[in-house]
């Protein structure tokens, strides 16, 4: 059954990730603190050891996600570098060819 907050909107279920309530679910106003500030815990408080373990695991997950994001951006940069290097050499070769064409055309004009 739907639960409504004091401002008349349907309350939403969320999970707290603070150190003192890690993993504990609650129902609150969809507007949060900027709404009517309606709040009700769903779960009973957890023992200290459970809170410490859950919070520690959450922090490890967060650190691993950040590391994965950094590795992904490094991989993208590593893949992009050869492309940039190839385009650089393409332009160098094109310029050399352009200069050769101009020199050859000028030498043909002087021969005539």
From TrEMBL:
Entry coiled-coil feature ranges: none
Keywords in alphabetical order: Membrane, Metal-binding, Transmembrane, Transmembrane helix, Zinc, Zinc-finger
Pfam families recorded: Zn_ribbon_GRF
Domain GRF-type: 5-45
GO MF term set: zinc ion binding
Annotated TM spans: 88-106
Protein name from the UniProt record: GRF-type domain-containing protein
Lineage, top ranks: Eukaryota, Viridiplantae, Streptophyta, Embryophyta, Tracheophyta
């Amino acid at each position: 059954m739907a639960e409504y907050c004091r401002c008349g909107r349907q309350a939403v279920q969320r999970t707290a990730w603070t150190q003192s309530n890690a993993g504990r679910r609650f129902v609150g106003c969809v507007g949060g603190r900027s709404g009517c500030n309606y709040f009700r815990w769903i779960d009973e408080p957890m023992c200290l050891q459970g809170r410490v373990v859950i919070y520690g695991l959450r922090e490890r997950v967060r650190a691993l996600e950040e590391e994965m994001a950094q590795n992904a951006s490094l991989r993208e940069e590593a893949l992009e570098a050869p492309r940039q290097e190839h385009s650089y050499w393409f332009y160098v070769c094109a310029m050399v060819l352009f200069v050769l064409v101009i020199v050859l055309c000028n030498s043909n004009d002087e021969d005539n």
